[in-house]
Structure formats: C-alpha cells, structure tokens
User: What shape does this take?
Amino acid sequence: MNISLNGKWTLYFRKQDKSESYLLTEEIKKQMSVIPATVPGNVELDLMEEGVLPKDIYMGENILEVQKYEEYEWWYETTFDTPKSLSKEKVTLCFEGVDTIAEYLLNGEIIGQSRNMFIPIELDVTDKLKTEGENLLQVHLYSVMKEAFDRECPMYSLMNGWDQNFDSVNVRKAAHNFGWDIMPRAVTSGLWREVYLHVQEKVEVGQLYYYTRYANENSAMVRFCYDLETEPVKDLFLEIEGKCGESRFYCKKPMWFKAGWAEVVIEAPRLWWPYGYGEANLYDTVLTFYSKDTVIAKKEIKVGIRTVELKRTDVTNGQDGCFEFLINGIKVMCKGSNWVPMDAFHSRDKQRYERTLKLFSEIGCNMIRCWGGNVYEDEEVYDYCDANGIMIWQDFAMGCHPYPQDKEFLALIREEAESVVRKYRNHPALVLWAGDNECDELIFQSGSNPNKNRITREILPQVIEANDCSRPYLPSSPYVSERIVESGNYRTIPEAHLWGPRDYFKSPYYMGSTAHFISETGYHGCPAKESIAKFIEKDHLWPLENNSQWVLHSADQRGNDARIHLLPKQIKQLFGEVPEDLDEFIFASQISQAEADKFFIENMRAGKEKKGGILWWNLMDGWPQFSDAVVDYYYEKKIAFDYIKRSQQPFALMCGEMENWHLPVIASNDTLKEVQGSYTVKDLETEELVLSVHFTVAPNSNAHLGRVPVMYSEKGMLLLEWQIDGENYFNHYLYGMPGFDLKKYKAWFEKLQALE
Assistant: This one.
C-alpha cells in the first residue's frame, strides 16, 4: 500500500553559503524567502508561478533568468498524519526522483542523504514515524553548482571533454541541464517525481526478472527469477499463468527458497516483433505464490517472448563488417529517431509523453534511442514501446566527457546502473544497453584511449552481467574499439554519428560513409511562423542576422551563432539563394531539412544488404528552438514529418542515385511477408508516365524494379505511386544537381500535398 505525499508543500530558499548540514529553525526561516511549492515539481516552476521568475520562461531571453538561482539552497517542507495502524508495520519513505544533492529530515532528525538525480531514494522510517499527531518532513537541496565548484574537475575532462558543460561531470544530474546544443542551460532543482510512504505487506515480491532462453515459431522457453521479501516460507509453491489471445502457458512448481527461478515452455508461442515485422504480442502473466494452499503474494506482469542479438564487428571498410539487430533470429532494419529531453524542467515530462509517443508511431519508427544526455524516462515510455513494437536503445546517462574514475564516483555509477537495469529489464522493447553518448569519440579524438575507461569497460558490463543476461551491451555510441585505436582510423567504425560539415546532404561526407548503422544524423529546419512567435519577441522576429534571441534559441548560450548560420547555409545549398521574406525562408528551410532527412533514410534502406539501420536526430524539441527536430516544442509538424513518414513505411518504393544515366527504382520490403502489387513512375510536373510495372518482392529484402532514364543536367521530381491489396501509397524523388528553383519546387510540393 502506498500513501501519497504529493501536493502542496512549502519552499524556503536563499543563496547558499556553505555546503553543511543544519536544522531549519524558525530563526533561520526568517532569513529566507518562502513560497508555496508543488510536488512533483521543480523549484523554477514554483518561482514562475509566484512571479519571481517570468511565467513565460521560454519567451525571448527569459531562460537566462534561471541562472541567477544556480547557487541557491532549497528547503521543501510538509506535514502529514499517519494512522495508528501503521505502528506495527514496516514503512518506507520513497522519493522517485530528487534533483539532486539532498538531505532528508523527519521530525527534526536527519534520516538520509542522496546525490543522484536519476534513481529513487528509499528510507526506512518504521521507527521514526509519529502515529499520533503530525509528522514534519523536510528535504534540504544543496546547490549543485556549489558541489561542482567544491569538487576538483579532473584535468583530463577539461582537456578531452566538450567545453560547453564540463561542470556536469562530477554530479549525477542530466548533462543537458548545464547547457547543450539542443537544450538551454537550466541547472534545475526539485522533488521532480512522486513522493509517498510505502507500507510493506507481510510478503512482497521484491525483484522479479524474466527472460527468453530460446524462441522460434514452434517453441519457446522463458525463465522467471524472483526474490520474495519475507521470512522463510514453508511449503512454498509458485504458479505461473500467461495468456495472449488463444495462446496459453501454465506451470506450478514447489520452491525451496524465498529466492529462486522457474522455467516455462510455450508451444507455438506468439512472439514479440518490432513494428512492421509482426505483432508486438504480450502475454498477460500472473505469478502466484502459495504457502500450502494459501495465497501469500501475487504479481502481474506483461511478458514479451523474443530473443535479441546484436551482430557487429569492431571495424569495417563498408563491406567486411556489420552492425545489425536480430530479433527472433531475423535481421531487422531499424528506422527511428533519438529520444531527447521532453522539457528543460523534468517534472513536466509526463504531460508530454502520450502525445509525443503517438508521434513516434505515426511517423513509422520501430526504434528509438534514449540519448545519454537526458534523464531515464518513466516506465510509461517503455510500456508504450512494448505494446507498439518500438525497440529501445538505452544509453546510460553520460555524454561527451571523460568521467571521473575515482572510487567514490565509480560507486555512484554502479548504484545507478543497478537501479536502472532492474527498472527496465522486463521490457521486451529494450534491445540494447549503451554505455554513454560520444565519450569514446571525444577521448579518442583527443589522443587518448577510451578503452581505459573503467565505467564503460568494467562497472557497467559487470552490472549488466549480474542483472540482465538477455541483452547486448555496447560500451559507447559510437564505440571506439582497441582495433580502431591501433589503426588510428576513426572512419572505420561500423556505427556512427554522421554530422560532419553540414554541407549538401549528398556530399562525399554523407555518401562516403562506410558505417553500417547511423545512430545520429540530421539537418536543421525552421519551425512554423506561429511557433516562432511564441518564443521570439516581435521586435526580434526577423531578420535572423545579429539576433540574440535566435542565437539563444539555438541553445548556444555562449554567444556562438554558428548553428544559426546553418539555416540559410542549407537553404542556399539546395536552392542557390536565401529568401529575404520570413515565410519564404521558413518554407525553404523546412524543404531542405525534409529532403535531407528523406535522403538519409532512403540511402540506408537502399543499401539494406550491408546496412542495419538509421536513427535520425530528432523527432521532438524539448524547448522552443531552431533545430534538427521535425516537430517543434508546440507540436507543430515540419514538412520533414510527412517526408520521413513516407520513407519509413514498412514497404516503400524509392529511387537510388544515378548510375549510367539512369535512376534505379528500389523496393524495400521490411516485413516478413511477400509483397505483390503494381507501381507507376511519373514526371510530377508534366504527369508523363515513365514506368508501369507489376512486382513481387520477397520477405525482408530489397528488389530493383526498373530504371528511369535521366540526363545529368536535368532537374525535376518523380512521383512513385503503388498499390498493394487495394491500398494506395506514394513517394517522390528529387533528381538533378542543386540549386533548384524555389518557385518551381513549391508547385511540385502543392501537387504532393494534394495526394495526402
């Protein structure tokens, strides 16, 4: 049983002098500011609500106001009653998320401390609760920046890390909070997740873990491991029952210890598949524990039966190498996006989950990468992905720095990793643990060997081996193996983040990549005018040159405006000139992004034999900005959304690049069924029929279905239309060399819109 302590609290605050413990006396309270607070919440949101910070914190340059409070300390305070019946029960005080360095006091007594934003805090208060009268609960949050200043930053982090936020390295807090090129600097504080009292039952199922030992269409075996929180039980039996549609499994076995395991064999199982490859089948499963004939504990869980394997090599030349996921023994072409922060203030994340997750399904993603500069998301995200066939690549929360290697920090990471792995391991959607984001890359490019990193080469593999034997582990994304260190050739990595010069999207940099899997790549696209007006003040709306608000909302608070120049640069690369009108600028920018993202995806799909997937950057903005996202913070879709949606269909027609004066027409079938149909290729402008073909494409394969003759000097747009089982689909291909005529492209675009 849980007793919620969410709701209205009182918040005291002042600039922190020293990082030391003290009691919050009435005298000290008089020296502090005080406002109401909401839990779960962030102190910044409470300051906004009370008018201390601007309510529209994302408008203009208002976000900079948050930095005034980086060196403040915060005291949360509330009172609550507990029933007398709890006097004989074990009670745990639970904080699902505390940001970040905290001390906990109950009735004036310090009962615990924590210094990790990412993991729940559980404090035994059985002997400390008053069952008559009020209990006083206080949480003292220390300034994270004071902690960062007080702890020496490792010199190798300064030498080898990213210069924007090295102050994040020593504290276990979301790295993006300290500033990133996709998020503002907002070094937040607060009780950002649920707070409650947990009253323990006499017998509770503590740890529970299941995994698929083997699976095929004929048979599967699933092992369930459990640990009961109880005194030793006599005559213990475990009953396991699961159902998915008409499929059932059942077993009942005697258990000799309060911790143990049982295996179940399922005949003709309904396997869990990623989107496009089959149904994301889940078994409603109940584990019931008996002492003789008496039920003493019960646990319900969703079970997805599947196996996962990551086939990869340490190096590649583009041919003799691989990086690909096998689900149930079948290679899956991964098509998806990176999951980035939902908001700068993470207590608001839940408000954005449902709508954002539906967008991932709508656009046709079968994988998301939970990026390492973020928090670990609530299980709602995982539950949705389980039910909708979206695979999850989970980074551990580290990015773009060499992290400390001292004993204390390694212990913090080990505790965090154990908590995270145990939290997510029962989700079939989870297919990969990755050690961090780009730490290997930065260390290697600085002339050091990332394979000496004890966190990713020692601590994390140990935790995963002990707690989750069913999933692959990748030390870093991208991973720089010893073989790459020895060769000194970074371009031989099989999994890459393809950013580069941000030049024309068909430049040699992009076309020449030998990587088999692209886990980051993208292209800038301007938000809609209506959205821009919600975060840029009228007098800064246009033009973008020498515009401090545009620079700030490119998330670079150091004043570097290089990313702002990407917008006109990418427009000019495609159209040869940059419109002076804002509306025209927005359209041209969104088209340059849409054509680029479409090309990145289709280029990977066209090379399916050697390619394993692409996770483009990114679907959704976490704050209002000019970025690579294809949906802005206000949920307005950019043109790229529809282009990507068409490119990510499980079965899609596309054109490859010109060979011998012809464009090949390629069918990419990312399903496990043979696909039959017919297609036409037309010149979009003249509507001239170029090809008309009936086709059959084998399961999980590509096929070349024809060739379109084109002169190298010509520019135009082809319309590909096809019909399968009475359903109509379409795609387009922009051919020729830039620059294209913007007015002519707009006419083509209007024709495409009419087909939607």
The first strand starts at residue 2 and ends at 4.
